[in-house]
Amino acid sequence: MQLHITETVLRDANQSLMATRLPMADFEAALDLMDSVGYHSVECWGGATFDSCLRYLGEDPWERLRVIRKHMKNTKLQMLLRGQNLLGYHHYSDDTVRRFVRKSIENGMDIIRIFDALNDMRNIETAVDECLKNGGHAQGTICYTISPIHNLEMYVGLGKQIEAMGCNSLCIKDMAGIMSPQVCFDLVTALKKEISIPIYVHTHATTGLGAMTYLKAAEAGAAGIDCATSTFAGGTSQPATESLVYTLSEMGYDCGVQRDTLKKVNDFFMPVKDKFIAQGTLDPYVLGTKADALVYQIPGGMLSNLVAQLKAQNAMHRLDEVLEETPRVRADLGYPPLVTPLSQMVGVQATVNVLLGERYKNIGKEIKAYIRGEYGKAPGAINEELAHKVLGDERPIEGRYAETVAPEFDAAKAYLGDRAHSEEDVLSYIAFPQQAEQYFAKRDSGVPLRVSYSIREVQ
């Protein structure tokens, strides 16, 4: 029996543990080694990496992808795409989505895992279609969550929509690590009865369930799982690659990887992790098991960002209050799955509610846009009082919001002029205007861009 392994250290593992602060200079030397392991794929792009490259790391995210592709000739590269949100935090035009997907594949991407934060499948159709047209592997995604309105029947229905859309495979994305082993077994089993495309399972170790959930996924016939090299595993990251491969191999599964090379990869990343702990970028808080996440349902990347935000405001002592407020805000918004961008939106609103001492005294613009329907259809009913506070007598948008968004590319290209060296630069600007302009200015000034910390500096 074969079970595919996707390694996440270059994207979700470091995103979940240290808010995506891993510069290319700290992993480029490991890429050839990683290419020889035999992973089914390496998740290395998308998610928050694009934003972080421009905002914090002084890197061109497109060049980052090209460098990884140059070194990894034998391994499929995988990314996470937020459907109509791309890698940003609001909906873009269909034209921009198509251009971005096309350029991602041209620059070396193989597998695009495409999700919508509300499981509104209208919001992934354009990205899926463009991915398929350009020869990419389109992996449609179900965002798993627990609420009074989410159930097995709903998830199977979403799976059918994903297959009907033409996706090559399906991913069950458990971003908070709250899917129990038995629920995973039941969900994979139910989906396999209704769809024929391969099913992949993504979870986190946050609650302590992750490794057990993966074993039940394998038993139910999942095609693959996401893991992180052990030094960047556990806590809010994924379960450890080496441990899962060891266990699954004993159970008769062929994971396709070289176990001695897995150790070499982990040996490379051990001092990298130590460096970021010493710098304070990786807070040991996120390394422990958080069983309370079964109640709060907070995903790894969201938790690490909450910690960073509260530290910046000298309010870390109020974390428990924010965690308690988060599910209340989520319920008010109709139980959206806590995944980017909704996880950040809900988390920020919960933080504001706590720090201001009054619920919804200040409502974020993204929350207002959500209530207006600019992110798609809310899974459940939005709190009437909150909706009225935002909308007044207006009615929320009922159609697909992206159809009302005018193409952005030509105007952005004209505005940037010579500052944009490529179509990719224009797309970077559309996704993150302020951060891209700052990056372009530094790049054109000749200032060294890459952030690189010497490990010796913190010894």
Your description of this structure?
The longest helix is centred in the middle third of the chain and has 21 residues, at 259-279. Helix 5 (94-106) packs parallel to helix 6, helix 7 (152-164) packs across helix 8 (181-194) and helix 18 (409-416) packs across helix 19. The protein has 459 residues and is of the alpha/beta class. It has helices at residues 9-18, 31-35, 49-57, 61-71, 94-106, 125-133, 152-164, 181-194, 210-220, 241-250, 259-279, 293-296, 300-312, 319-332, 342-356, 365-372, 384-391, 409-416, 423-431, 433-445, and strands spanning 4-7, 41-46, 76-81, 111-114, 137-143, 169-173, 199-202, 224-227. The protein starts with a strand and ends in a 14-residue tail after the last helix. It has an eight-stranded parallel beta barrel with strand order 1-2-3-4-5-6-7-8, surrounded by seven helices. The chain contains 20 helices and eight strands.
Structure in a nutshell:
This protein has 459 residues and is an alpha/beta fold. It contains 20 helices and eight strands.
Strand segment tally? 8
Task: Tell me, rounded to a whole number, the average pLDDT.
Answer: 94
Helix content: 40-55%
Largest sheet entry: 8 strands, parallel, barrel
What count of helical segments does DSSP give?
20
Task: Report strand %.
Answer: 5-15%
Catalogue the unreliable spans. Answer: 451-459
SSE order, one letter for each helix or strand: EHHEHHEHEHEHEHEHEHHHHHHHHHHH
